[in-house]
Structure formats: C-alpha cells, structure tokens
C-alpha cells in the first residue's frame, strides 16, 4: 500500500493550495480517508475526514469554512482544497486511509508553509 501526497509549497497568508493524495495497492473505495497535519513542535492533529463514498465530511474547527475535502474513487485520489491560508496552517500534511480495525495507512506527507 502506498499513499503519496503532493501539492504542498510556500505561499502567503490569504493564499490557496490544493493538496492531493494518490493511493495504490488497496481498494480505495473501501477506505475512509483523512487529512492530518503536524506543525513544528506540535503533535499531529486531525484536519478533515471523508467517508468511503464521499459522504460524512468532517472538519477540525480550525479549518472549517476554509478547507474542503473531496475524493475521486475512480482515480484513487483524495484532495484538500485550502483557501485563506494562515501562518498557523504551516505544517506537514499527511494522508491517512482507514479500513477496518487495524487497517490504517499513512503517507509521508507534503510540506505547506505559509509566510509573509
């Protein structure tokens, strides 16, 4: 199983980015998908979740109204549209796939840096 994130880069406050997570080696539509992030010196935190069929969307309060999670099961891909980025959004963003109990996978992450 492989989860590969991309799309992270340096941007300014107020900017937008779209992160992608492409999955291989699993039946993508059987997995709920999540985005997490890990900021320097902080613990990993939940960002957003999406159900197997693109339903059951859930967002952390810190990103609600600014980030949008989506998935394309035909492309084995999950996206995170991030708008109105703030300095505090700076982190490594991680893709997570969750199947049944004990069936969880992580990507290596993509760096998002928001700086003026």
* Overall form: globular
**Radius of gyration using CA atoms only:** 13 Å
Integer average pLDDT: 97
**Helix content estimate:** under 10%
Q: What is the number of helical segments per DSSP (H or I, 4+ residues)?
A: 0
SS-based structural class? mainly beta
The residue ranges in which pLDDT falls below 50 over 5 or more consecutive positions are none
Order of secondary-structure elements: EEEEEEEEEEE
Strand segment count: 11
Distance between the termini: 37 Å
Strand share of the residues?
over 45%
Largest sheet at a glance?
7 strands, mixed
Features:
mainly beta; seven-stranded mixed sheet; 11 strands; 0% helix
Describe this structure in words.
The mean pLDDT is 97. Helix content is 0%, strand content 50%. It is mainly β and 116 residues long. It is built from no helices and eleven strands. Strands 2, 4, 5, 6, 9, 10 and 11 form a seven-stranded mixed beta sheet that branches. The protein has strands at residues 2-6, 10-11, 17-24, 32-38, 45-50, 58-59, 67-72, 77-82, 91-98, 104-106, 110-114.
Short description:
The chain is mainly beta and 116 residues long.
SSE map:
Blueprint: E1 2-6, E2 10-11, E3 17-24, E4 32-38, E5 45-50, E6 58-59, E7 67-72, E8 77-82, E9 91-98, E10 104-106, E11 110-114
Parallel strand pairs: 2-11
Antiparallel strand pairs: 1-3, 3-8, 4-5, 4-9, 5-6, 7-8, 9-10, 9-11
